[in-house]
Structures are given as structure tokens and as C-alpha cells.
Amino acid sequence: MFEFFDVYLLEAVISGILLGGVLALIALGLNLIFGVIDVVWICYAELIMIGMYGLYYFYSVYGLPMWIAAPACIALVAVLGLLLHYIVIQPLLDAAPINQLLATGGVLFFLQSFATVAFGIDFRNLGIRLPVLAIGEMHFSFARLLAFLAALAGMVVIYLFMTRTYIGTAIRAISQDRQIMVLMGVDTKRLYLVTSALGGALAGLAACLLVLQYDVHPFVGLSFGPITFLIVVLGGLGNFIGGFVAAFVFAEIISLGGLYSDLEWGYVLAFAFFILMMFARPQGLLARRS
Amino acid sequence: MSMRLGRRLLGAAIAVVAALSLAVPAVAQPKIKIGVIFDLTGPLAGGGSELHYLGVKIMVDHFIKQGGVEGYQIEAIYADAQSKPDVAINEAVRLIEQEKVDMVMGFFSSAQCVPVAARVEQLKKFMFITTCISSAVLENRNLKYVFRAQPSGSQFGELSMDFVAQNAKEKLGKDAKDVRVAIIHEDGAYGVDVAKGNEAGAKKAGFNLVLKEGYSATAPDLSALVTKLKRARPDVIFHTGYNPDITLFHRQARENGLKFSALIGHGAGYGVYAKLKEGLGKDVDYIYNVDPISIWSTNQKALDPKLPPLIQMVGEEYDKAKPGTTIRSAHVGMSASNSYVFFTEVLPRSIKKYGGVDADALRKAALEVDLPEGGTMLGFGVKFAGDDSPVAGQNLRASPVITQYIDDKSYVVWPKSQAQREAVLEFPAGTTYSPK
User: Fold this and answer.
1) In chain B, what residues touch A143 (CB-CB under 8 Å)?
2) Which of A19, A252, B186, B351 satisfies CB 3.0 to 4.6 Å to B191 for a cystine?
């Protein structure tokens, strides 16, 4: 066995995989939206924040059982995604990308301010303590394991939906050529709304799993937003599998870099890797060279 | 007839009074405009800044209700630093240049304090810090107009190490060289400074420092840090953080099976018990916090007799603003007490002795403050270091204490002279973090 190998290295590797699951889950919805509608929802992490508040209120304040509260939270964010598209994105579909970006950036600040006014600045917590998975000296968070499994399941479901259903096929076709699909009688507006609701629902699912691991406050999105955006770019904007792989690569660099050096070096290494890859493979990790 | 005459006379009298009042020019009451800056939004707001804002506001309102100080009306203009240093600087400059405030007060985050102090000094305005603790704000900067009533961060760090050093043999059953300590901290000016004090204290005590590491307070994951701590096996962890990084660390420590004998937090997030309890549940029991003493825990018999009624008033206003609080946060009392020092010691002296509220008058008045122990609600005295000191502007008589949370109560356990109960140094066997 190598001298540097120990049980803590193994724990760090598995922790990295579990963190990768969390990041992959968040990246999934963002990728879906970009892949189909060709718009980056900069405010995606803030939708998750609203979802976290939603679950907190449904479960902790109104006392709904989790099996009702969680689907209600997912539905709430799905509706928010739909509204976001209908009110903000749809009027800007033909605008310059920078305008679309600025508009969703505006929604980001709106949602942060709205949450500050509506929910206050206090940190909220569901107060749920999930059991811990212990294998010898290694311990793993059950909440992270759940998020990891949800990311895997979400990935498979999205893949099946996109490849095996009529709407999924139409969505993929739209992402390839927005103009021609209208000529073929496809209701693009309806499909965009479906995609936005689906992206919102994925944000809702991420919210349900993140609220088990993090306190909710109006600025919780700052912890995830930038890193998720980097992952989606690293994987190739709109490339589900690329985003999925990038999330795990990023998480492992953070986890192992943090173990063998200062914690912050883990992030420095991850960002340095991102910059290098932008030079080496600007289309994303799994993109084919054209 | 007589009634008509009476009415005429009354009318004439009113006219004369009105004419006289017009003839004598109204003398406007002089006023001091104070810019108060805290974080009311952003992550630092819930991490304690908003509680400090409340403390200052209670005291400002108290003196406004009293009609001001020495004939001067008080007007406070509150600004939100939004948990961002650049916003804090811009707001300080805006208040000084556009709102024409005479001075600025407040400041929660050390990362804001350091640059704001330099900017305010440049503008030759008076700055009275009620909250932030980093030594870097004042140390070797020779600032003339910046004063701080709070203890400094390195004092926090050294006190907690000294506490463990004095109790290691008796309560951990170990010689100092065998005590394994880890220092973890957020990587801003605040965390770095307290960690510096921790490190100096560890060296002085002869502890075995097994890990010292900083992290970003907004990091989404601390599990690598937890794994490193598991490998380093510290007996005592010294932690400085805001929130929510503190609750994230504790959650991941529990989930990753980290065991240690004791944990000492240093202010900020560790001073907001209600949030710690909400995030950690029963795991908050036996955790320590280093901060200036809560004004509701001071030995009131040892205080200046005029202070206990004020402590009561601050408590009542706190309860009105935050009904249902389990343990009143020391944060509110801290900034209320420190701002009270300004309104009762600095401001009146500046007006009476130095004839106004400009920066030089306020500075001269501040340098003459000489309160003995028991002279403030926080128990400590006040004497600001002069120009000849490397920490000019720092209150040399300020000192923190160590409290321990047990069963929804907060007890002062160190220094011994102020202790309300014996410290339970090790987590009891069977509790979440206990190695036993």
C-alpha cells in the first residue's frame, strides 16, 4: 500500500463523491434550462433558496408531514420557474444574451431582497438530524448520500424523459433549431414553459435535500451559485453528462486538495483547473472537438 | 360690553406675544449627527450584526428621549453595510460627505473595520467602534481619530488558551505538552486575529498544536477540514467563525464522527445562543464562548450604582424587539454598553470642555476617559491608549470572559474572579462529540 494512503484519504475521496452529488444535482436543472432555452438562469441558486424556505415553512412552521411538504416545495419552485420564464425570459427570448443574463441577474437580487423582507435575516433550520452512516473509522452524512442518490436518479429520469418521451424529443429538437420547429407545427412556447417548470422542479428537489444540510438564509445561494455556474461551464453549457462529470471532478479536487493542503487551496486548485480547462477544452470537458 | 373688551384685550395680548416671538430670532439647538453602520442584510446580519445594531439603537433612542446630551440634540442616521467591506466604506464616506455626520459609530465585521478606519481617518472624522475586535484595526496604525471600547481579538485568543492551560492538569488529566489543540478560523481579519492570539497562547502554554487552519466563511463544504481534524485528533478545538459556517462545521463534525474533549468558540456566531440551539440542538451543551460578559450576567453590586437600572432598561427594550428570546445575546448588551460610554463620557466632555463635537474635540475627550473597573455595564473600565502606544485608540482596560452553555443557560466560567460556576471542561461521556 502507498505510504500516503490511509483511511482518511478514502473518507475524503468518498466525501468528495458525495459533495459532487450535491453539486451535480444543482447543476442538472441549470443545464437543462440552458440546453433547451439557451438562457442562463443566474438566479438558479436563489430559486433553490426560495425552495428551502418553502420546505422550512411547510414542514417546521405549518407542521405538514415531510411526504406532503417535500412535493409541495418541488411544486412551488416548479411554478416559480414557470413564472420566471413567462414574466422575464419569454419577452427577452430574441434579445441579446447579455440582456438575458442581466435580467436573470436582476431576478437574483430581487429574490435575495424579497427573502430578506419576507423571511427576515435569521438563519432557519429544519432541526432534522438524520442518522450517520459509519463504516469502521469512516463516517458519512446520510443527507449527502440522499442528495447523491437523488442526483443519480434525477440524471437517469431526465435522460429517459428526453430520449423516450414525445415532449422530451421535441425539447431536444428545439434545442437544436429553435426556428425550424415552429415551422413544423411545434408549440415552442408550451415546450419552453414545460422545460422551465421542469428546471424549477429540479431546483425544488435540490432545495429539499440541501435544507437537510444547510441553514436557510436569504444569501445561502452565494455558497452554491458561483461554483455551480463554473461546473456547468466546465461540463459544457447544456451538456448534462459533462456537467455531471464536472461536478465530481470539481468536488474531488476541493476535497483532496483540502485534505493534503489548506482547505482554501482545494478551492484554488479547483479554480485553477477550471481556468486551464477553459484554455484546453473551451467547449467543456466532454465536448467533441469540432 | 365687558365681554367685548375682554376679547379685544385677549386678541391684543396674542398679537403682542406673536409679534415678540417673531422679533426674537429662534436659537436652534445644536445637534450631533451620528452615522451608525452595521450589517442589516447579508450573512453577517443574522450572525450577530443586527443584534449589535439593536444595542446601539436602544442607547441612541434612550438619549434622544432624554433630550440629548449637554444641550446637543442627537440625530442618528443608520446605514446598512450589507455584509460587504466595499459597501461599508462607501456608506461611511456617504454619511460623512453627503449626510454631513459629525462621526461614525458601530461596525460588526473586522474585515470592514480595517479599511473603514483608514478611510475615516483620512477624512479626519471621529470613529467610535462598538463591536469589531481585530487587532489589525488599530495595531501599529497610529490612527488619531479611531477609538474602540471593545477588547481586541488577540485578547480573545490568548484568554481561551490560558483557560485551558490553567485547567488542563486538573480537568483533562494531562500536562500541557500532552494537550493536543487545533485552531480553526474563518479567514477574514477577525478570524485571523483571534487565531493569532490562540497560537501565541498555545506557544506560551506549551500545548501541542496539531492543526491551524483558516477557511472561507461562505465555503459550501467543510468536510475536508473535519477529516483533517479526525486525523489530527485534537483534545480541544479553538474555533472562530461567523454563522452559518459554525453550524455547518458542527453538523459536518457530527456526521463525520469527529470526537474531541472540548470546543471553545470566540464570539460572533457563538454569541447567538438561539441560533446555535436551533442548528445544533442538544450538541450546543458544554460549548464555550469567549466574549465580553453579557451585561445581564455581570455582578451588579460591583458596578457603578447608576448602571443596573440601565441594564434593566436595555433588557426590556431587547425583549420588546425580540420577544421569546431564550438567552439574551451578549451582543446587544455589548454595543449598548460601549455606545453608553460614548454618550456619557466622551460626548459630554467634548461639548463642555472642548466646546463642540468636531473630530479633534471628540478625540481629546476620548483620551481623557478614565473609568475604573465596574465603570461600564460590561464590568471592565475604560482607558484609551494614546498616540505613544502601538495600539492607539484601543481600550486598554477591556477584557473578555469565557461562558459555557449548559441546559439553556449561559454561565461565566473564566476568569475565576467572575465565575458563576465551575467549568465542565470535557464533554460528558456519551454526548455527541465526546471521545468517551
Assistant:
1) 255
2) B186
